[in-house]
Amino acid sequence: MSQTNDTLPPPPFKIKMVEPIQLTTLAERKEYLKAAGYNIFNIPAEKVYIDLLTDSGTSAMSDNQWSGLMLGDESYAQCKNFYNLRSVVKEITGFEFIIPTHQGRSAENLVFYALNLDKTKIAVSNQFFDTTRANIESMGAKAHDLVIPEAYNTSIYHDFKGNMDINALENFLNQNSNVGVIILTVTNNTGGGQPVSLRNIEDVSKLAKKHNLPLFLDAARFAENAYFIKLREKEYSEFTPKQIAQKMFSYTDGCMMSAKKDGLVNIGGFIALNNKDTYNRIKERMVITEGFPTYGGLAGRDLEAIARGLTEVLSEDYLRYRYQQLQYLGNNLVKANIPVLLPVGGHSVNLDALRFLPHIPQSQFPGWALTIALYEKYGIRSVELGSVVFAHQKEDQTWVYPDLELVRLAIPRRVYSREHLDYVCQSIIDLYKSKEEIKGLKMTYDPGLLRHFNALFEPISS
Ligand SMILES: Cc1ncc(COP(=O)(O)O)c(C=O)c1O
């Protein structure tokens, strides 16, 4: 079991620059919501008090990273920052070829293109993130999740709820000869930031080798995953996070990384891999969409910030504090009997909207309704990972709703203090007391793919 400590030691950094935030009034927020079509993505950021929409691209960079920006070499080809990034990524991942991209989803797009994912192919993962799934499906291929069943039960504890179901994977590979790639998402964002064990990565790797399939990590939160391994997988407790990360990558053929998470930067990503043919196909393709392969849609200074962020993120002090911050919020909510996905994840605390709002059916989007109520009453922005994001229609037009209806409180890295988390915690506790007043919503505009970004809603009045 992990610690259940609900105190929070001081952070291993101090504040050098501040950004003011302001709490608007309830009446103002009601108006903003109406104008936003009850879609939290449409609320101007200035009108949000505590922004837990995402941990992606929202990190506070260090003085070391900011000073690195001044060393940006903005040469079109072969800038020196590319070499700095390449050397850091090579050191952590062991991969030969490194390709910067402007963010994670472009890395996904390029890898899937290079692996020839088309309508005859299936991609398998513990659980795909929404953009990853969308990239696969937009190429005509199928995306199939095989996470362990425990991942779908929010109230049971499992050290590694992000693990791939090994038996299910073995059966699936035996029955389907058209799998094109296996992807392990570390940590599993869709399932609440849950980690994957090294043992599981090794087991998946054995099956991938047996079936001659490439295994890639979706490595957006590789450092947080490594820290969970250190805490929960006994044989690695004496390893440094970097050594664990190196081991994680060593079982795989490559990775796609959104550096906006564990790269501790506001924009950027990369692909790293060993296969030269795949590398060449990516290089040829990316000049059309991303730019020359040594800058990948980024400025030289961005590459420098990523290189430095990747080194900082593996600091044990940093990872310990990050873990404790998440535990602090999660455990205080649990203590107040708020239905929270257990155990607390690496980058987010997730409310179980089905248990929080049992009076709202999934056809009326309880998770979405909870995000709206949290913003309306307290100015807190969160995100639904439930029926708006994941429900889909069968051929007979009936809707299939997801097993999990989560509201994710994603904690930006090095941004909020304990006082901010206390405000969030108390707000949720207060909201829970009047939860029956929260009403469901009707979707008035459904844009289809990745619909949460652009959908519009109206509250259901009775
Ligand atoms: C696990 C995972 N993979 C991929 C992505 C896509 O990355 P980006 O937003 O940089 O395109 C995300 C973004 O949140 C993610 O969480």
Describe this structure in words.
- By secondary structure, the chain is an alpha/beta fold.
- Helices cover 39% and strands 14% of the residues.
- Strands 2-8-7-6-5-3-4 form a seven-stranded mixed beta sheet, sandwiched between helices. It has a three-stranded antiparallel beta sheet with strand order 9-14-11. Strands 1-10 form a two-stranded parallel sheet.
- It is globular.
- The termini are far apart.
- The mean pLDDT is 96.
- Bound molecules: pyridoxal-5'-phosphate (PLP).
- Pyridoxal-5'-phosphate is lined by residues 56, 103-105, 129, 131-132, 185, 189, 218, 220, 258, 260, 269.
Strand content: 5-15%
Q: What is the number of helical segments per DSSP (H or I, 4+ residues)?
A: 16
Q: From the helix content, strand content and strand pairing, which structural class follows? A: alpha/beta
**Mean pLDDT reading:** 96
> What separation lies between the terminal Cα atoms?
44 Å
Low-confidence stretches: none
The CATH class of the largest domain: Alpha Beta
What sort of overall outline do the alpha carbons produce when their principal axes are compared?
globular
Strands of the largest sheet, in order across it?
2-8-7-6-5-3-4
Please give the radius of gyration in angstroms. Answer: 21 Å
CATH-wise, what's the superfamily of the largest domain?
Answer: Type I PLP-dependent aspartate aminotransferase-like (Major domain)
Helical residues, percent: 25-40%
Q: Which ligands occur here?
A: pyridoxal-5'-phosphate
The number of domains: 2
CATH topology of the largest domain: Aspartate Aminotransferase, domain 2
The total of beta strands comes to 16
CATH architecture of the largest domain: 3-Layer(aba) Sandwich
Major sheet description: 7 strands, mixed
